[in-house]
């Protein structure tokens, strides 16, 4: 299994652990990621103005370069996934925009590269059953809440990874690592997103609601596939950490995957995390950082 | 041959697009034209008179009325011709409205040219039309009604009261349909049972009504006036002729199951009568759960039955009936709440649908009419009603409005407030559709005087948290996000066609719309007729509607049936296929080509035979016949060729 890989900017800056844990895990699972020769920022948000095609240029370049590489394109970050998939959709369906964008990037691309999320590869190509068989250190029923946020699931007819109202791909993933998935009502609510870049209560409060709801239902860890969600949910607990109160580590799903596959700390890179993830290691029965 | 042409303006419908003087002029070179004129509304009385006078005065032998579609007025103008002494089949319509002025509104010149061409083609056709006379078909003056909801019951009663036999087929063990489950009804809040049960018992005991419950249509053949229907009476494992409805079997049966009638909100037994007032008041054994069938032993009911009515060996029976007309009144289902993700996919216990609320509110329901929530039986102090769930939502459901839920939601909120005066009902709505006598007043009173809080906006999510049913929504009038930590939620889920309706329609050879509701022959002028002659539709099977509308439609369908029964024969168009026996080789290709089963092979004579009553005159056989032995009366090959010549 060989795929083209689009890491996106954040995975090379703030979310290094997401990148390294995924790449290392994939190696163990026999999936090869070949990073695109040429890629640039996806733009981070899909443009919502209907008469502005310019923000499509950058993701279109990435997609066109994947086309040249001749392989399916994989990405990890929910936002990159969302933007690439939706741009692909526009270039497939909207002939006007396609013409404009293609003329600008001087490529002939018509939305035909398949964009995949790593979760889709785990679910559809490897299969959670086979994944379970490869687990070397089990989490032995650790209660973990899956947090989807918005971008991984919506809009469903363009993104289509799972049921937008009751997704289960992350839960199934967690089960295969022998975690106990925790059901809570906020798993697809917005964390506050970019509003977080301004200080204040505005994002902290939605993020806090999410964390509190997961916590109240017994979650010991929250997993996500979005660096911004990770930051928001983590940051919302800074005061708890400062006061030495109970807090729930918020990690990338690939970090749990790497631990389960028996990979070492060097690929996990929990450095930037506010809530120390030590507990995860205890659960998995391996020694670890920050415990 | 002297043919007259009568061009209708149809107000501005045709006259506003087609240049009629120009058309008149263009026809001047046409030979054997007896008379040409135009008029603003040809179908009106003076218009009709104009045609009659011309036929008589000018001695016309053929007539072309250039106006709307023949589906609209062919019969009108043929009658006019007949009254004036002309054979009606010498009158043709040239459709210059639906097929000309309407689609070519923006190109009047081309429309004018096309109108001329259409009229010329019709002239050619009329020139070769034979003088035909209608076929006569015998009529079996007995009716079949499928579906015993309020619509089917009303239709059956109306026909039966007029003195004709009716067979009423209902697939559930009892009649009454959804109305039997309702508590009070808007806008008068009279009790549903009180207005329904007298009718059900009348149906049950009417000497002219043959009631088949727990039954369905197994097969059907024939045509208007002469349908042959096979009814499958499903086994109930109880001999209903012997049973006296004492209920002892139900009392003693050891196996409990969810009651379908109570929508799972209460239990019943493996042998059960759906509700005490059910008509007929006879029990059915559910063989899926009955211990006799699942474990091969038990038979308690058999032992206790004082009249020996239990019969575990009983099998389905099939009954053949002949009927002249059929009314389909198969009603509706609700869009399942398990399909609504944002409101919990039916997993959150205290999220119920409107019918479940009706049961909770019903004095004979699972809570004896007290509003208690399903999860723990507590009386909800804050209750949220959500309208348009699945309706008016193309993405997640259906684009249409279900029409009755604004009204029943107002009713529910009000009834709740009467029973829980210190409770707070909230209603999320998109807009209120309360068109109906006394309806708007009912809703306004609910809003203004009953303390129900109406919030204009949608709900994004419903979930359970610490025993509360939490509702996230928005109030678009104050532009505020709303979060209600309520106790119970009631969804006004979309009305959809009853399950199996599409299959039934296929069996009956009638059409449905894309959602499965039965299609009417004309949305305005023939709302209770299907496109198949002799089959009529009523109630929610056609579209969502309330009880008064269902009853009105049922009465109207019954009136159509009675009109059909007014004579013991009826006429059928003679413009059907016929076979030239000299040319036919008996190959049978036409039998496959015919969509109406109107063809058979006479093996002995080696000839194809047309059943003229079934033939719709579509012409498929004429195309299929390799020997050129099949013709359509008044649409034969020579006619079609000459019509084409006239156009090009
Ligand atoms: C929650 C709720 C509240 C309502 N409240 C009111 C109100 O207050 N006032 C009001 O005017 N209206 C109300 N209505 C609307 C009312 O229920 C309908 O208008 C009415 O029941 C329609 O009657 P019907 O006979 O067309 O259909 P139904 O009541 O659905 O009856 C159809 C019958 O046909 C049977 N059937 C279906 N398929 C077959 C088949 N293939 N073979 C044989 N039998 C078949 C069914 O079993 C059923 O018995 C309410 C509706 C709902 C959902
Ligand atoms: S009747 Fe009212 S609630 Fe029902 S679909 Fe129409 S608008 Fe919505």
Summarize the structure.
Chain A is α/β, with parallel strands linked by helices and 291 residues long.
Overview of the molecule:
The complex is a heterodimer of chains A (291) and B (648). Chain A is an alpha/beta fold. Chain A is 44% helix and 11% strand. Chain A folds into two domains: 2-117, Glutathione S-transferase Yfyf (Class Pi), Chain A, domain 2; 127-283, Rossmann fold. In chain A, the strands form two sheets. A four-stranded parallel beta sheet of chain A has the order 2-1-3-4, with helices on both faces. In chain A, strands 6-5-7-8 form a four-stranded parallel beta sheet, with helices on both faces. In chain A, helix 1 links the parallel strand 1 (2-6) and strand 2 (32-35). The longest helix of chain A has 16 residues, at 78-93. Chain B is an alpha/beta fold. Chain B has a five-stranded parallel beta sheet with strand order 10-7-6-18-29. Chain B has a five-stranded parallel beta sheet with strand order 20-27-21-22-23. Chain B has a four-stranded parallel beta sheet with strand order 2-1-3-4, with helices on both faces. In chain B, helix 2 (20-26) packs across helix 6, helix 7 (150-161) runs parallel beside helix 16 (547-564) and helix 12 (354-361) runs parallel beside helix 13. Chain B is globular. The interface between A and B is small, with 7 and 8 residues. Flavin-adenine dinucleotide binds at residues 146-152, 169-172, 177-179, 182, 185-186, 216, 329-332, 334, 354-355, 358, 404, 408, 411, 498, 500, 504, 539-540, 545-548, 550 of chain B.
Please tell me the overall pLDDT of chain B. 95
**Biggest β-sheet: strands ordered side by side in the sheet of chain B:** 10-7-6-18-29
Q: Please list the strands of the largest sheet of chain A in the order they lie side by side.
A: 2-1-3-4
Named once each, the bound ligands are:
flavin-adenine dinucleotide, iron/sulfur cluster
Quaternary structure annotation: heterodimer
User: Distance between termini of chain B?
Assistant: 23 Å
Q: How can the largest sheet of chain A be summarized? A: 4 strands, parallel
Name the CATH superfamily classification of the largest domain in chain B: FAD/NAD(P)-binding domain
Following the backbone from N to C, one meets helices and strands of chain A in this order, namely: EHEHEHHEHHEHHEHEHHEHH
CATH class bucket of the largest domain in chain A: Alpha Beta
Alpha-carbon distance between the termini of chain A?
Answer: 36 Å
């Amino acid at each position: 299994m060989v795929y083209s890989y689009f890491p996106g900017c954040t995975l090379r800056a703030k979310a290094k652990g997401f990148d390294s844990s995924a790449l290392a895990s994939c190696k163990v699972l026999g999936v090869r990621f070949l990073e695109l020769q040429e890629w640039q920022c996806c733009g981070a948000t899909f443009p919502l103005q209907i008469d502005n095609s310019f923000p499509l240029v950058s993701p279109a370049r990435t997609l066109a370069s994947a086309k040249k590489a001749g392989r399916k394109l994989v990405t990890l970050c929910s936002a990159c996934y969302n933007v690439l998939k939706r741009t692909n959709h526009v270039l497939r369906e909207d002939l006007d925009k396609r013409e404009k964008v293609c003329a600008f990037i001087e490529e002939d691309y018509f939305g035909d590269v398949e964009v995949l999320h790593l979760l889709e590869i785990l679910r559809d190509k490897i299969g959670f059953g086979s994944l379970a068989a490869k687990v070397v250190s089990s989490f032995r029923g650790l209660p973990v809440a899956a947090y989807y946020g918005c971008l991984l699931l919506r809009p469903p007819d363009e993104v289509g990874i799972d049921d937008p109202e009751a997704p289960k791909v992350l839960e199934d993933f967690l089960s295969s690592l022998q975690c106990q998935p925790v059901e809570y009502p906020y798993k697809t609510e917005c964390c506050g997103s970019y509003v977080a870049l301004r200080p204040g209560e505005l994002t902290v409060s939605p993020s806090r609601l999410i964390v509190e709801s997961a916590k109240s239902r017994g979650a010991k860890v929250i997993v996500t596939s979005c660096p911004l969600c990770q930051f928001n949910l983590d940051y919302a607990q800074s005061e708890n950490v400062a006061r030495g109160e109970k807090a729930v580590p918020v990690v990338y799903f690939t970090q749990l995957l790497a631990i389960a596959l028996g990979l070492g700390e060097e690929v996990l890179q929990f450095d930037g995390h506010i809530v120390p993830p030590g507990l995860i290691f205890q659960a998995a029965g391996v020694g670890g950082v920050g415990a | 041959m002297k043919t007259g042409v009568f061009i209708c303006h149809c107000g501005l419908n045709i006259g506003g697009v087609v240049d009629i003087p120009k058309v008149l002029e263009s026809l001047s070179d046409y030979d054997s034209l007896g008379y040409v004129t135009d008029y603003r509304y040809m179908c009106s009385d003076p218009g009709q008179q104009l045609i009659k006078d011309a036929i008589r005065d000018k001695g016309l032998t053929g007539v072309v009325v250039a106006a709307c579609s023949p589906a609209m007025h062919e019969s009108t103008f043929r009658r006019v011709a007949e009254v004036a002494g002309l054979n009606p089949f010498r009158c043709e319509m040239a459709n210059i409205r639906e097929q000309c002025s309407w689609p070519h509104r923006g190109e009047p010149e081309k429309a004018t040219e096309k109108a001329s061409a259409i009229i010329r083609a019709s002239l050619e056709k009329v020139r070769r039309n034979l003088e035909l006379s209608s076929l006569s078909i015998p009529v079996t003056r007995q009716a079949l009604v499928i579906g015993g909801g309020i619509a089917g019951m009303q239709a059956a009663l109306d026909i039966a009261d007029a003195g004709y036999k009716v067979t009423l087929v209902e697939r559930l063990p009892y009649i009454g349909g959804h109305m039997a489950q309702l508590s009070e009804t808007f806008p008068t809040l009279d009790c549903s049972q009180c207005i329904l049960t007298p009718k059900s018992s009348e149906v049950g005991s009417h000497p002219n009504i043959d009631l088949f419950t727990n039954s369905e249509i197994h097969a059907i053949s024939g045509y208007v006036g002469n349908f042959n229907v096979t009814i499958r009476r499903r086994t109930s494992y109880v001999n209903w002729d012997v049973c006296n409805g004492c209920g002892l079997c139900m009392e003693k049966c050891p196996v409990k199951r969810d009651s379908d009638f109570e929508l799972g909100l209460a239990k019943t037994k493996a042998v059960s009568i759906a509700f005490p007032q059910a008509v007929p008041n006879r029990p059915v054994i559910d063989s899926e759960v009955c211990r006799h069938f699942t474990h091969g032993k038990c038979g308690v009911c058999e032992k206790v039955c004082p009249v020996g009515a239990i019969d575990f060996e009983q099998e389905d029976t099939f009954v053949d009936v002949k009927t002249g007309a059929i009314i389909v009144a198969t009603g509706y289902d609700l869009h399942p709440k398990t399909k609504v993700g944002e409101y919990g996919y039916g997993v959150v216990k205290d999220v119920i649908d409107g019918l479940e609320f009706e049961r909770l509110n019903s004095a004979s329901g699972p809570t004896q009419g007290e509003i208690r929530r399903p999860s723990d039986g507590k009386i909800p102090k804050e209750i949220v009603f959500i309208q348009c769930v699945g309706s008016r939502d193309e993405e997640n459901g259906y684009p249409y409005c279900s029409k009755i839920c604004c009204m029943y939601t107002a009713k529910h909120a009000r009834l709740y407030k009467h029973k829980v005066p210190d409770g707070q009902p909230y209603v999320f709505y998109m807009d209120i559709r309360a068109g109906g006598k006394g309806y708007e007043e009912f809703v306004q009173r609910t809003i203004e005087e009953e303390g129900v809080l109406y919030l204009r906006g949608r709900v994004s999510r419903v979930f359970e948290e610490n025993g509360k049913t939490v509702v996230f929504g928005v109030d678009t009038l104050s532009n505020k996000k709303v979060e209600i930590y309520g106790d119970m939620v009631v969804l006004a889920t979309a009305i959809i066609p009853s399950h199996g309706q599409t299959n039934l329609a296929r069996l009956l050879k009638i059409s449905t719309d894309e959602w499965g509701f039965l299609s009417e022959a004309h949305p305005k002028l023939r709302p209770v007729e299907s496109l198949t002659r002799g089959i009529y539709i009523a109630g929610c099977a056609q579209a969502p509607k309330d009880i008064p509308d269902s009853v009105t439609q049922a009465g109207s369908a019954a009136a159509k049936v009675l009109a059909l029964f007014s004579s013991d024969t009826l006429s059928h168009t003679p413009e059907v296929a016929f076979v030239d026996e000299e040319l036919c080789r008996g190959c049978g290709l036409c039998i496959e080509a015919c969509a109406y089963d109107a063809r058979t092979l006479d093996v002995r004579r080696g000839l194809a035979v047309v059943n003229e009553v079934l033939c719709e005159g579509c012409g498929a056989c004429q195309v299929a016949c390799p020997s050129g032995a099949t013709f359509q009366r008044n649409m034969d090959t020579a006619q079609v060729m000459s019509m084409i010549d006239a156009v090009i």
